[in-house]
Amino acid sequence: MQFVQLSLSEPILRALVTEGYSTATPVQAQAIPHALLGRDVLASAQTGTGKTAAFALPILEKLSKAQRPAGSPGARALVLCPTRELASQIADSFRAYGRNVGLRYTVIFGRSIRCDAASM
Question: For residues 27 and 41, what is the distance between their CA atoms, to the nearest angstrom?
Fold first, then answer.
């Protein structure tokens, strides 16, 4: 399936062309239409099959079309991942796919803190 068949906006399609993508992977072709409709999606696939684009493209699409009052603070999307490396990779994907939509993002790294009930 071609990305143009997935009802993505022109700025996002242009970014995909810049990245050299034209054909959606199976996980993308199955997940993106449901995510664009606001449905929950749970996908499992091997590394390198396009899972990041499967969730990033619908997020960018929805946020780029949503009206937001000027000056309204706060995050509109949150992506959690288990490692700094993966967080950086996901941020790079959002930067590439969203280059033409004018959205801002940030990556936050943290440390896990163990809290034992006995020490509270």
Answer: 11
* Cβ–Cβ under 8 Å, residues 16 and 97: yes
- Residue 39 near residue 50 (C-beta atoms within 8 A): no
CA distance 10 to 108: 29
Backbone angles phi, psi at 36, to 5 degrees: -65, -25
User: Residues, the chain, total?
Assistant: 120
Structure tokens at 12: 């996002």
Token pair belonging to 118: 């006995």
What's the pLDDT tens digit per position in 44-67? 999 999 999 999 999 999 999 987
One-letter identity of residue 49: T
